[in-house]
Amino acid sequence: MTISTPPPSSLIRLRWRLVGLRDQLRRAPGVGRRIAAVIVEGIIAFISLPALMRNVPQRTFPRVARRERETYVESYDRYKTTGRVVVPTVLTIIVVGVLAIVSTLSFHTLLRPAQRLVTVGVLKRVATLDPLVQSFQEGLMAHGFRVALTTRTGSTTAELTKLATALVAKRVDVLLTLGDQATLAGQTATQRTRTPTLFFTTSDPVALGVVQRFTPSGTNLVGVGRAILAERQVRLLQQLAPTLDTLAILFDPNDATSNQFRQALEDIAASEAIDVRGYPISRESEVLATFDAIVADGADAVYLAPGATTSPLNASTAAAARDRRLLLMGNSERNAEAGAAVAFSVDLERVGGQLADLAHAILQGAPPEQLSVLLPSHGFLAFNRKTAEAIGLVIPPDLLAEADALF
After folding, report:
1. In terms of pTM, does the model score above 0.90?
2. 403, 343 Cβ separation under 8 angstroms
3. Which CATH superfamily is 230-347+379-406 part of?
4. What is the pLDDT averaged over residues 49-69?
5. Residue 230 vs residues 38, 226, 240, 342, 391: alpha-carbon distances, Å
6. Which option is the CATH number for 116-227+350-370: 1.25.40.10, 3.40.50.2300, 3.40.50.300, 3.40.630.30?
7. Three-class SS state of 366
8. 2 pLDDT exceeds 50?
C-alpha cells in the first residue's frame, strides 16, 4: 500500500506558473496589480496545502496508530477521511480571511479619487531660490496634488516677460514668479488671461505695483512679499562685531534686487551711525581686487547682497574674505556652506510652504484677488564655524543656539 503519493505533474506545473505570475504582479506598479498578486498567492496556497497534506512522511502514522491503539492502515484511513472534510474547510477559511483583509486594506485606496495633476510654470532669475521651489512642490503634494513643473530662467526683464508669456500660453494652472523682475514679467504676461499667479518678491508688492493692497490683493497675483530683512541683518553684524564702524556691501549694479538690498542696508546702518560703502561687482573676476579695496578702506565687515552676479559668488568670495580675515555675511544658506562666516535671509523653505498653501486655496476655487498677501514667516540663520575660527570670530552662545544650520 502506498502511503505518500506525489501531486500530479500538471498541478506542479500550474503552481510554478502561478508563482511566476505572482512575482510579475508584485513588481508591477498599481494597487490593482498588488491586490491581484495577493489573490494569486491565495490560489497557490490552496494548491500547495493539499499536496503537502498528501506527502506527510510515513512514520507519522505508526505513532498515531500506537497512540490510538489502531492498526497502521486504520490510522491512515482515518486521516484521509478527516482530511477530506478538514482540509477544504481550513483552506476556505484561509482564502476568505485573505480576501477580507485585502478588501479592508484596499477599500479606501480603491475608492479614493485619483490625485489631480496640477501644472505649474516657474519663472525665476537665480538658482539660489531652488529650495523654495522644492518646498512649494512638496507642499502641494502634501495637499494631495500631483505636480508637473515647467521651469524657466531669465536674466533681463524683456527675456523674463517672453518666458512668462510662453508659460501662460501652455495654459498652466498656476504661474509661480520668484523675484521682483520675474513677478513684473508675470503681471504683464497674465493681463489678458488672468492666470492665477503666485509671487515671491524682495520689495513691497504694493510699492512694486503688482497688487493693490495686502488684504486682499485685488488682482490675479498673490504671494509672499517684502523679503528684505535689513534691520535684523545689521543687528546680527553688530552682535558679531561690536566695534562695527564701516560696512562694505558687495552688490550687482545691474540688478534691481541687489540695489534694493543695498539701499535698505544703507538706510538701517545710517540710523546706527555705521558708515556704509558700496562695491559694485559685475563679474567674478572682480572679486579679489574688490576685497583688496575693501581692506584698504578699513571696512570691519562685508555684506553680500543677493543678485544675478553676486548670489553665485560662493567659494571664491568666501575664500577672499577669509584670507583677509574679514567678516562676510551671505544672503543664503549656500553662502554659509561655501565659507561665509554667517548668513541670514528669509527661510525659503517656509516661504515655499506659504505659497503652496495659497496655491491650494486657489486650486480649491478661491479667487486670487480675494486672498491676502503674506509676509515671510521666518528667517534662516547659518554659521560656518571653521571660517569663524580662521578669522578669529567668537560667535556668542545665544546666537549659536538660534542657528538653523551650522557648517
Report:
1. no
2. no
3. Response regulator (3.40.50.2300)
4. 54
5. 60, 11, 15, 14, 24
6. 3.40.50.2300
7. coil
8. no
Q: What torsion, rounded to 10 degrees, do the Cα atoms 154, 156, 161, 167 define?
A: 0
State the Cα–Cα distance between residues 141 and 121, nearest whole angstrom.
16
Q: What mean pLDDT, rounded, does the chain reach?
A: 85
- First-to-last alpha carbon distance for the chain, in angstroms, is 80
Phi and psi (nearest 5°) for 382? Answer: -135, 145
The β-bridge partners of 405 are 382
Beta-bridge partners for 304: 250
d(CA 40, CA 24): 11
Q: Is 345 helix (H, G, I), strand (E, B) or coil?
A: strand
Residue 86 has pLDDT above 90, yes or no: no
45-55 residue pLDDT tens: 776 665 555 55
Q: Which of 109-118, 138-147, 155-164, 312-321 has the lowest mean pLDDT?
A: 109-118
Range list of H helices, 272-364: 287-296, 315-323, 333-338, 348-363
Q: Is a pLDDT exceeding 90 seen at residue 231?
A: yes
Q: Residue 361 burial (CB < 10 Å; 0-12/13-18/19+)?
A: middle
Instruction: Over range 81-106, report the average pLDDT.
Output: 61
Q: Are 255 and 266 in contact (CB under 8 A)?
A: no
Closest CA to 331 of 245, 255, 223, 222: 255
Burial 157-191, CB ≥16 within 10 A → b, else e? beebbebbeebbeeebbbbbbbbbbbbbbbbebbe
Asked, colleague to colleague, whether 116-227+350-370 and 230-347+379-406 share their fold, the answer is yes
Q: Map grid coordinates 503688482 to a residue.
A: 210
**pLDDT tens per residue across span 95-104:** 666 666 656 6
The pLDDT tens digits of the residues spanning 163-177 come to 999 999 999 999 999
Summarize the confidence of residues 306-325 as an average pLDDT.
88
Q: Report whether 172 contacts 120 (CB < 8 A).
A: yes
| Domain ranges across the chain | 9-111, 116-227+350-370, 230-347+379-406
> Is the link from the previous residue into 62 a cis peptide, with omega within 30 of 0?
no
